[in-house]
Automatic annotation (TrEMBL):
It is an enzyme of class 3 (hydrolase). One of its GO terms (cellular component) is cytosol. Homodimer. One of its GO terms (biological process) is purine nucleoside triphosphate catabolic process. It comes from Thiomicrospira cyclica (strain DSM 14477 / JCM 11371 / ALM1). Substrate binds at residues 49-54, 109, 216. Belongs to the HAM1 NTPase family. GO terms for molecular function: dITP diphosphatase activity; ITP diphosphatase activity; metal ion binding; nucleotide binding; ribonucleoside triphosphate phosphatase activity; XTP diphosphatase activity. This is dITP/XTP pyrophosphatase. It catalyses: XTP + H2O = XMP + diphosphate + H(+); dITP + H2O = dIMP + diphosphate + H(+); ITP + H2O = IMP + diphosphate + H(+). The active site is at 108 (proton acceptor).
């Protein structure tokens, strides 16, 4: 009797595996694309100031933000009753948020002279009285500082900027920057504002009011503060 050959095993194709993660991966990819699209929309932010010189100086910082001036909403400036630059900046930002319903930036700055007990400081804009001109403020400062020599004439521009997402924001973003220099012995230059005509910049051997636009952009404490703040606004927490 012939011997039967054992039947050879039939090779069957393995069933295709199904990954339950594929739908999840698809959703994740969709989320990434939606997130990228969202970043293309520039956030709207109100700048809480009526100072056009200040606004013009910081405008180049806002390429990724739609900046709206407080004046566009016919909002009167709030009284600066804070005891520090930070308090005043928060007051301005919170008030702009309340009045517009939008995120807002408030700022406060001043010229601080240690030998004068940090005056004019918080009173920089009204040092010679309410409604005083830049010329009057500079003249009063030079008169008070006349006895000072050398290092006694050290002075610093200090700016603080605050970003608030809404009026009740418990974690505002705060940035402070300083520009150190000296008081000049006279008013010199007319291209700046505030105390620029008496703020001597040793790096260039002249007052801030004699610097050209490019030179001032490399040193401005206000510009440094806004340059540090804006990226945080663009990437702000949800």
């Amino acid at each position: 009797m012939p011997r039967l050959r054992p039947q050879q095993a039939v090779k069957r194709p393995k069933p295709l595996s199904y990954s339950r993660n594929k739908p999840v991966a698809r959703k994740q990819a969709d989320g990434v694309s939606q997130s990228s699209a969202a970043k293309l929309v520039k956030p709207k932010v109100v700048l809480a100031t009526g100072n056009l010189n200040k606004a013009a100086e910081v405008m180049p910082c806002f390429a990724e933000v739609t900046l709206m001036m407080q004046s566009e909403f016919a909002i009167d400036p709030i009284e600066e009753t804070g005891g520090t630059l930070i308090e005043n900046a928060i007051l301005k930002a919170r008030y702009a948020c309340e009045q517009t319903g939008l995120p807002a930036i408030g700022d406060d700055s001043g010229l601080f002279v240690p030998a004068l007990g940090q005056l004019p400081g918080l009173f920089s804009a009204r040092f010679a009285g309410q409604g005083a001109t830049d010329q009057q403020n500079c003249e009063k400062l030079l008169a008070l500082a006349e006895p000072f020599k050398g290092e006694e004439r050290r002075a610093s521009y200090i700016s603080t900027v605050v970003f608030m997402r809404h009026a009740a924001d418990p974690l505002p973003i705060i940035v402070t920057r300083e520009w150190a220099g000296y008081l000049h012995d006279r008013i010199e230059g007319d291209s700046g504002y505030g105390y620029d005509a008496v703020f001597y910049v040793p790096e260039f051997g002249m007052t801030a009011a004699l610097l050209n636009f490019e030179q001032k952009q490399t040193l401005s404490n206000r510009l440094e503060a806004f340059n540090a703040l804006v990226p945080q606004i663009v990437n702000t927490r949800p």
